[in-house]
Write a structure and sequence with these properties.
The chain has a six-stranded mixed beta sheet with strand order 8-12-13-18-20-19. Strands 11-10-9-21-22 form a five-stranded mixed beta sheet, covered by helices on one side. The protein contains 15 helices and 23 strands. It has helices at about 65-70, 135-145, 170-180, 185-200, 225-235, 260-270, 285-295, 295-300, 305-315, 365, 380, 390-405, 430-440, 515-520, 555-565; strands at about 1-5, 5-10, 20-25, 30-35, 50-55, 85, 90, 205-210, 215-220, 245-250, 275-280, 320-325, 330, 375, 405, 415, 425, 440-445, 455-460, 460-465, 480-485, 495-500, 525. By secondary structure, the chain is an alpha/beta fold. Residues about 1-120 and about 525-555 have low confidence and may be disordered.
């Protein structure tokens, strides 16, 4: 059993290069099996651009080189990220993730009216990855208003007319309507997301949170579109208010099949109390993951792909972390990786096999990250290399780490299970050094399923996960945190509250992924055999459990050595 991204896969580990393993993907609560070719078939080579840099939402005063310099040419690179989906074994392919460019109208010619997109030829659609200027968003709003035909006949739910219309009664009505299968009219959904964008534009990469005297702060981990579990959670926590602030710690969408319903409630809560509801970006607030894990398809089926583009803009503007009472840092995944960013070929998950901890960054450096960007599949291996003065590259590394990294038991840094290259796991010494440098009591993160919904992975690192019975197969409890400060300026106290899953309508997880497979096949690519090598670099495809050299047959071992021709940072060298 291996973990590919967030997908569990049962893999045979054949030692003969002509053997054909069976891949079993438990992605939607169902078991999907496919016989695939030799291990080398787990490699695809999409010609993609570098990560895209979108300027506009960094900390106050930060200036991106992308803003100053304009677009840089895209570099086509090989990708080894794969995923087994209902249509067969496929991988991230032409995601349309373009080169770095300024926010402008460039690259938007292929986009027609968002409201009318449902009637377009779906075979030509790609997500927009350039930023939106204020006049463009205003044009979207005008178009939505001009083309709106009013709510569907018989609609009796709430109407959104601006942030002031979001009251407690609006939210209660929205929740009730969605539980009965209803949705906000398309016009209202567009306007809500557009207004959330305006709110998020004014926020910093690292927000600051205070706990009202005598009150508590609630921290919620991954929700993943599990609407009925989310409603149960709110019945336990109560709704946020100026007296009871909330931090939603990323991964609101994907996986569960009610991601639209979840995110609309969260956005409504944000609009009602923008100074008391704090949102962090997770790795599932990204175009790459939204295409693979359901949210993109769900947008298309429940509204249209134009709304997905607007959601993506809101996600890019989400803060990356929040500092609570100057004592606790809340972020989605983990801490920044080593600098220089070294990748050791052949490094295993043995706790003693580690890249030593390097000097931690300061909170000021973290707050200065320009977060307004998308991460493409090529950005992960492309992040490997020496420390540089290029702010885009350094910010990209930090964004990858804050959205993707995980803790490990051993010291230092090790390779992650989640990506083939460029994502790290970090040890307790890394956490301790970061907390010591920044005078922090603790770090709270999410990103990983925990049997009890929470776990102290390190003495100063707490994980909270709020999606019970994840994917309808996890059998895990979920949890949320209640944080108090008994005395002004004193240490924080953290209470972990667990809860179980509740029944939901008979709709399997990742139901809407089928929409991408059927209607937008250009976003996915059948994996093809890579002729340059006839072995699997890590033994288990994207799972980075490396086999020992003595387990390889001689010809495989030779190819292994050739494949790992790298420079001192672990970057691939050209073939001989």
């Amino acid at each position: 059993r291996a973990v590919v991204g967030d997908v569990f896969m049962d893999l045979s580990s054949p030692r003969r290069k002509d053997a054909a393993p069976k891949v079993v993907c438990m992605a939607a609560g169902a078991v999907l099996a496919a016989n695939v070719g030799p291990l080398s078939a787990f490699v695809t080579t999409p010609a993609q651009a570098e990560h895209v840099m979108l300027r506009g939402a960094g900390s106050a005063g930060s200036t991106s080189p992308a803003t100053q310099a304009g677009a840089s040419p895209a570099a086509a690179m090989a990708s080894e990220h794969c995923l087994a989906l209902a249509a067969g074994v496929v991988s991230v392919a032409a995601l349309g993730l373009g080169s770095r460019r300024r926010r402008s109208t460039a690259g938007t010619a292929r986009l027609s009216s968002p409201v009318a997109l449902a009637a377009e030829d779906t075979s030509t659609w790609f997500p927009r990855t350039t930023g939106w200027a204020a006049d463009e968003l205003a044009a979207v709003r005008q178009r939505v208003e001009a083309e709106a035909g009013g709510p569907p006949a018989g609609y009796a739910g709430p109407r959104y007319t601006g942030p002031s219309s979001v009251t407690t009664e609006f939210i209660d009505s929205l929740i009730s309507m969605q539980e009965k299968g209803g949705l906000l009219p398309k016009e209202d959904a567009y306007k809500m997301v557009l207004d959330v964008i305006e709110v998020l534009r004014s926020e910093n990469t690292m927000g600051k949170v205070s706990i009202p005297a005598g009150q508590s702060l609630t921290i919620i981990g991954d929700i993943h579109g599990q609407y009925w579990d989310f409603m149960n959670l709110l019945s336990l926590t109560g709704k946020p208010s100026p007296q009871t602030p909330f931090i939603f710690n990323g991964d609101f969408v994907d996986r569960g099949s009610w991601s639209i319903e979840v995110i609309m409630v969260i956005f409504a809560l944000k609009l009602k109390d923008p100074g008391s509801v704090f949102l962090n970006r997770g790795n599932h607030e990204m175009i790459e993951t939204n295409i693979l894990y359901g949210f993109c398809g769900e947008c298309g089926e429940k509204y249209d792909m134009g709304l997905f583009d607007i959601f993506s803009e809101a996600f890019r503007l989400l803060p990356l972390c929040h500092l609570v009472e100057e004592k606790m840092l809340v972020l989605h995944a983990g801490l920044p990786g080593p600098e220089p960013r070294i990748w050791m070929p052949g490094q295993t998950h043995d706790p003693t096999d580690a890249i030593p901890a390097t000097e931690p960054i300061s909170l000021e450096e973290l707050a200065a990250v320009d977060r307004y960007m998308e991460i493409t599949p090529e950005a992960y291996p492309g992040s490997i290399g020496p420390t540089t003065d290029n702010k885009i590259e350094m910010d990209t590394r930090k964004l990858i780490d804050l959205l993707w990294s995980d803790p490990r038991g051993g010291t230092g840094y090790g390779p992650s299970y989640r990506k083939a290259k460029g994502v790290y796991m970090f040890g307790p010494d890394v956490t301790d050094k970061f907390c010591e440098k920044n005078n922090l009591q603790a770090i709270v993160r999410s990103h990983e399923v925990k049997a009890d919904g929470y776990r102290w992975d390190h003495p100063k690192l707490l994980t909270v996960f709020s999606a019970p019975n994840y994917l309808d197969t996890g059998n895990n409890k979920a949890a949320f945190l209640k944080v108090t400060q008994p005395s002004p300026g004193g240490n924080l106290e953290i209470e972990q509250v667990t809860f179980a899953h509740v029944p939901h309508p008979d709709l399997a997880p990742m139901t809407w992924q089928a929409s991408i497979v059927e209607k937008y096949p250009q976003l996915l690519r059948k994996m093809k055999k890579k002729e340059a090598a006839t072995f699997d670099e890590f033994g288990d495809s994207d799972f980075e459990g490396l086999m020992n050299f003595d387990e390889w047959e001689p010809d495989e071992a030779d190819q292994f050595q050739e494949a790992f021709r790298v420079d001192q940072y672990g970057r691939d060298l050209p073939p001989k």
